[in-house]
Hints:
nucleotide-binding, 237 residues, alpha/beta, dCMP kinase activity, Rossmann fold, three-stranded antiparallel sheet, single chain, 10 helices
Amino acid sequence: MQARQLIGRKKIIIAIDGPAASGKSTTARKVAGLMGYTYIDTGAMYRSVTLKVIESGMLDEVRRSPEKVEGLVKGISIAFEGDRVLLDGRDVSGEIRDNRVAREVSFISSLKPVRDALLVMQQELGRGRGVVMDGRDIGTVVFPDAELKIFLVADARERAKRRHLELQAKSPEGFGVPDLETLEAEIVERDRADALREHAPLKKHPDAKEIDTSRLNIEEQVAMVHDFAVQMEEGGR
């Protein structure tokens, strides 16, 4: 597949939601490249806030008094430069993928001050359309009017395998990489927390097209989403 030219085309918003390790980010990034759209990784935004809370030394305090996170997110700057994620001007692309961040991001992202602050940022980034945005509440909260809503799913074991391979690639000697059973348990717990949180829980929008990626490779799932996107650009349903 080749990247499409934007000239003379109707630009749309593509919202891709789903649980952890369902392939959202990779799919969204590749689809954006094919469409000539801007890719916005909202998961990286929540991970960046989580990293800031951890580095502030206030994680335990925020657990006791969640409202204290408001002071940390006030005035926070999160920007994207290519594949780099900048937190207050600092490149944190690698740090936000650490397991210490993965363990805390569900809690931090459940806090209303965090979601409210990032909601404004995300809606501003998507203004004008021509974007692909992935997360857990893009189609239900951030852009419920997105022309194309995708909901990716996969069984927990398969998602744990993907996460394991991803972590091994970053640490060839296997240092600090949790075993498969630990990762699967963490994913199941993350699913539970995401589905039950009070603010913007993970759920499928009624209009979303569900794709089970358990038995699909990345090229196949990208092709499916790309085909849907082209149809929507052309006024299809």
